[in-house]
């Protein structure tokens, strides 16, 4: 099944909260997840000329602001980070409403999640729907939300989670076989009062 870009929020078997993002792509497979600093992961084309071909393929996919993790499939990551003072629900609702779905051939949805050690919200905007929801995370499980054929917040969109570190989870989700065309994965794990980030790219 091809679900395009997707995010996962969940809890490891040893109780740590995490957010993950995977690029799956038919059209732009030559990209990497690159750790920019301890708080930011970007999705970048290997050939920088690609940046000018499509406005939606280069962006920060994870940002950590004061131990709060934001994960998205586009440039709304930074905007949400700037609006966290609205509260998690309202930051998602505001930015998704203002930025709307992507104006490409597929009307690709924007997806997002915000997570800290206390709570998690997921959200999306499509050309016909918009939703933000608080979710309760369960040990050893991750809820996914993807851009194609899976753009909904639904308890049935759940996968088992293997691994307890950011590195292990990134490897696991990049290689998650059910979802086709893996390209790159980035993960942020909340471990006590620190957030640890890791990336894993195809053929790395
Ligand atoms: N965020 C991304 O990494 C991303 N990659 C591709 N897109 C958009 O989705 C369209 C379809 O891409 P694909 O065939 O790789 O699923 C692209 O033309 C582009 O407009 C993206 N936009 C949203 O997911």
Automatic annotation (TrEMBL):
Pathway: Purine metabolism; IMP biosynthesis via de novo pathway; IMP from 5-formamido-1-(5-phospho-D-ribosyl)imidazole-4-carboxamide: step 1/1. Pfam families: IMP_cyclohyd (PF07826). The keyword Transmembrane does not apply. One of its GO terms (molecular function) is IMP cyclohydrolase activity. The keyword Hydrolase applies. It comes from the Archaea. It catalyses: IMP + H2O = 5-formamido-1-(5-phospho-D-ribosyl)imidazole-4-carboxamide. Its EC number is 3.5.4.10. Residues 2-193 form the Inosine monophosphate cyclohydrolase-like domain. Catalyzes the cyclization of 5-formylamidoimidazole-4-carboxamide ribonucleotide to IMP. This is IMP cyclohydrolase.
């Amino acid at each position: 099944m091809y679900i395009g870009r997707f995010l996962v929020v969940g809890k490891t078997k040893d109780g740590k909260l995490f957010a993950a993002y995977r690029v799956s792509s038919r059209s732009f497979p030559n990209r990497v997840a690159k750790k920019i600093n301890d708080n930011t992961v970007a999705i970048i084309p290997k050939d920088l000329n690609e940046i000018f071909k499509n406005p939606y393929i280069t962006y920060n996919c994870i940002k950590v602001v004061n131990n709060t993790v934001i994960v998205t499939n586009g440039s709304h990551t930074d905007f949400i980070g700037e609006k966290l003072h609205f509260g998690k629900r309202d930051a998602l609702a505001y930015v998704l409403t203002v930025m709307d779905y992507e104006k490409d051939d597929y009307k690709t949805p924007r997806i997002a999640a915000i997570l800290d050690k206390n709570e998690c919200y997921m959200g999306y905007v499509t050309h016909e729907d918009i939703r933000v929801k608080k979710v309760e995370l369960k040990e050893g499980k991750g809820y996914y939300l993807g851009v194609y054929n899976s753009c909904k917040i639904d308890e049935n969109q759940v996968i088992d989670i293997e691994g307890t570190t950011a590195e292990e989870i990134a490897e696991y989700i990049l290689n998650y076989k059910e979802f086709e065309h893996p390209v790159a994965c980035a993960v942020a794990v909340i471990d006590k009062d620190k957030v640890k980030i890791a990336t894993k790219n195809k053929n790395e």
